[in-house]
Amino acid sequence: MRIFIDAGHGGGDPGAVSNLVKEKDLTLAISNRIISMCMGNPNLIVSRSRGVDQSVSLSERVQKAERFKAELLLSIHINAGGGSGFESYILNKMFKNKQHTEAMQTRLHRTIIDNIDFKDRGQKQANFYMLRQSSMPAILTETGFIDHEQDRKKLMQDHNLTIIARAHVKAIEALVREQEDTREKEQLISGSFRLKHHAVNRQVYLSSVGINSEIRHQFIDQDSYYRVVIDQTLDKTWVIRKLKALNQPYFII
Ligand SMILES: [Zn+2]
Q: What is the pLDDT of residues 218-250, one digit of tens each?
């Protein structure tokens, strides 16, 4: 899974500030920890909006995530304005695949809250730029309030930043496992035919390019079809790339 980590604020934009503690430093410390923890997991490919204290505009951040072809954009922030605890956000408007993003938020939110020592303020929705302008699922987390004395004390301790980062990584790993589970259940089909010999022809062709398949006889609204189902043990991403390159049809059910 391709993950884009956005450390909120930076450079000339300190974010929220309280008692000389700046949000931009905390988000950077947490994000850099997340990045190095993800590096050890071969299932994760990570990129980030910034790795140092620098100004990066919101549009640049989104562009970086788009260029990276992220499958999840995770924006890291610290809260302020009276309150205490952890909350997560997705976009508050209708958008493509919102249900999927909501499910990801639920998994991410629960995993993080189970692994940090902050009060649960719940899953929320808002019209934030990073959530609105990005085309991939995007979630923003706010861990603790910088202007809440106890939250700030926690955030000022390095080992707590490591715990917060690890909770985010555990959440990302839970999402990857979920994605793999649904992929395993999905069937990749390359053609559905009325006549069996057409299905056999397709199967022979696919086998000549290294893709094994089986033919399944199925009824759809009382019509009989022969479906060419790709071998479940093959790497679906590889098969799809190959079928696209060969201009062959496929669909997933
Ligand atoms: Zn912020």
A: 887 788 999 999 998 888 889 999 999 999 888
Residues with CB under 5 A from ligand 1 (ion): 8, 15, 77
In the chain, CATH 3.40.630.40 sits at 2-183
The residues that bridge with 223 in the sheet, in sequence order, are 220
Question: Domain 186-252: what homologous superfamily?
Answer: Sporulation related repeat (3.30.70.1070)
Task: Say how many Å lie between the CA of residue 8 and the centre of ligand 1.
Answer: 5
Lowest mean pLDDT among 29-33, 40-44, 62-66, 88-92: 40-44
Q: Which two tokens stand for residue 148?
A: 């809440």
On the 0-12 / 13-18 / 19+ scale of CB atoms within 10 A, 5 is buried
ipTM over 0.95: yes
Alpha carbons 200 and 196: distance in angstroms, whole number = 6
CA of 12 to the centre of ligand 1 (A): 13
Homologous superfamily assigned to 2-183: Zn-dependent exopeptidases (3.40.630.40)
Separation of CA 234 and ligand 1 centre (Å): 43
